[in-house]
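thread from #wetlab-drylab

HS: before we spend reagent money on co-crystallization trials with zinc ion, can we at least see a predicted complex? here's what I'd submit
DV: go for it
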Amino acid sequence: MQFLIGLGIIVAVGIFYYYVLYSPAQQDDWDKLPTLPEYLDKHPECKTSDDENAKCYSCGSDKVIFQPLTTHLDPRYKHICLSCNRILFKSKSIMS
Ligand SMILES: [Zn+2]
């Protein structure tokens, strides 16, 4: 019985790592996002004086925040418009 519990824990941890940390669905979403240069290529009007940020193409807001894709240890960041919640572009933390 103990063996089965142990096995169950290993499987649960494996599933947790796969879906939460590796998270193929999130990785897929992330792959589809443009990088900042690609984003600015598509929406040149969104360029700001800040080289590492841009305005929202949808509502024009410059309140764009970034957050890690999964946990705070994740070097993959998505940049989100605070006004309309649109995910605009992605970047990778240099501190990975
Ligand atoms: Zn917006």
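DV: Helices lie at 2-22, 24-32, 36-42.
HS: ok that's useful, forwarding to the group
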